[in-house]
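cron nightly-structures :: item 1 of 1
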Amino acid sequence: MLLSLVIPCYNEEESIPLLLPALDSAHSELTGRGHQVEVILVDDGSRDQSPALLREATEARPFLRVIRLSRNFGQTAAMAAGFADAAGEVVIPLDADMQNDPADIPLLLAKLDEGYDVVSGWRKDRQDKAVTRKIPSQIANRLISRISGVRLHDYGCTLKAYRRDAMQGVHLYGEMHRFIPIYAAWHGARVTEIPVRHHPRRRGATKYGLGRVPNVLLDLMVVRFLWSYGTKPIHLFGKFGLASIAMAFLAFFAAVYFKVWGGKSFVQTPLPVLCVMFFLFGGLSILTGLLAELLMRTYHEAAHSPTFVVREIYRAGAAQAPVRLTAVRS
């Protein structure tokens, strides 16, 4: 089996001398188990000596190649570049700071052999600061699990193993690399997690902090919206619009009631203004839903993206590999 290790790297000149020997050891162990291994290091616009160190590292390591991005695009974009270049049947991302341990990769592969499509690492004994890293992460993980329905303890752990089939149709934007298990599960992949080792950062400084929390929450909203209403946005905007129009009629009838039986003119209550505002909000919401429907249908037609996923096809009592069927639009 061909394995692709994808490692995003940004200003890690102090960690690279530690990372390379660990990759050499992992490569030797995995090839000794009969696997072919390629390692893809994605330099995300580093401004230190990382590019020179990585270029030098490729001279003595035929299994290693480096993709250097033109500027710092962020971890998700760096992962997307590595995934796009990877040829392996199994893709395994990990961090370059040596907090993930490449020696745990065989554990992930063993779990894949049990029939899973995605195996996520769980930093059960996480070696990070409690206030700025561990506690916010625990809160975020519980929130993500509750909203998505995919129960994992540690979405933020980069060390994961994905079968290539489980990543088909997954496009990464923003900070969404951590949500790949959710996308995979929603497309029918079998997802699990196992505890992995986590080491304290020995060199360099972390690139992450509390500033990422709002980004993660906003991306989670996008993920949930795309899953629930990605092919039917009018159901969300339309329901809100109809509710607003209903509130407009209630405000109108209340204003009439106070005018006729309450002895109050229209200008003495805010009800006429509320009636107009609710009606306008409702109409605009429905129009937004219609525009969203046009956009999503245009996207699916242009990308030839079906609205379903086929796991297997049975003929004459035998399972066959799924083929790409023409999607029936709804």
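cron nightly-structures :: done
The first strand starts at residue 2 and ends at 9.
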